[in-house]
Amino acid sequence: MSTRQWPNILITGTPGTGKTTHAAQLLEALQAAPSTSTAPWQHVNVGDFVKEKQCHSGWNEEWQSWDVDEDKLLDALEVVQQPGAKILDWHTCDMFPERWIDLVVVLRCDHSQLWSRLEKRGYALNKLQENNEAEIMEVILQDARESYAEEIVVELRSESPEEMEENIGRIVAWVEAWRRDHVDDEP
User: Fold this and answer.
1) What is the CATH number of domain 11-180?
2) Residue 164 has what pLDDT?
3) For the region NMPbind, what residue ranges are annotated (predicted)?
4) 182 near 1, Cβ under 8 Å?
5) Which whole-number Å values give the CA distances from 150 to 11, 22, 73, 103, in the listed order?
6) Is 11 helix (H, G, I), strand (E, B) or coil?
7) Is 21 annotated as a binding residue?
8) Does 108 appear as a known binding residue?
9) What is the per-residue pLDDT for 118?
């Protein structure tokens, strides 16, 4: 049982599935909902955090991304996640300790739609192929299922604004249920 007053949520998925957009909209929804607005909710885009806190060993030209130093990253995030009310947003999930995370949301998208989204971002062919194959093979979903308790991993489709709105509603309802189950009523 968690001693935190608020849960931590990890939104993960292949690049292009809508993690950052979901996280930003979830933050707004949680800050607006009367039952959750008192929490100090924070969206932590882990990719940005890696750059800001220099949790990397340098830029990788071939993959056009930072080579993440996982030890530095975990050390820096340890303090950030402790109080709860964090929405972590990153393309991988298996490195985060299970004790940190209360809900893992794995966003999924049809591979042809994903390819189109990544092309619009200007991804190189090798990144397009690698990410598309990862989505087809359900790599991140499998990592989540192997790394966390089955009951905290949820797979959600992310192909339309309507699906995103429905997903946000489901997660807000989950937070409300988590609070009922984990936090004693205050006098």
Assistant:
1) 3.40.50.300
2) 97
3) 45-68
4) yes
5) 16, 22, 25, 10
6) strand
7) yes
8) no
9) 96
Q: Is 126 exposed, middle or buried (0-12, 13-18, 19+ CB in 10 A)?
A: exposed
Q: Is the Cα torsion angle 27, 29, 30, 31 positive or negative in sign?
A: positive
Query: Does 18 carry a binding-site annotation?
Result: yes
Sign of CA dihedral 148, 163, 182, 77: positive
Pairing of strands 56-60, 103-108: unpaired
pLDDT-flagged residues of the chain (< 50): 1, 186-187
- Residue 27 contacts residue 43 (beta carbons within 8 Å): yes
Q: Supply the pLDDT for residue 185.
A: 57
Nearest CA to 69 out of 51, 55, 84, 48 is that of: 55
Spatial distance between the Cα atoms of 121 and 16, rounded to a whole number of angstroms: 9
What digits encode the pLDDT tens for the residues 151-182? 999 999 999 999 999 999 999 999 999 999 98
User: What are the extents of the domains in the chain?
Assistant: 11-180
Tokens of 167: 């997903």
> Is 20 labelled a binding residue?
yes
Give the C-alpha separation, 60 to 131, whole Å.
17
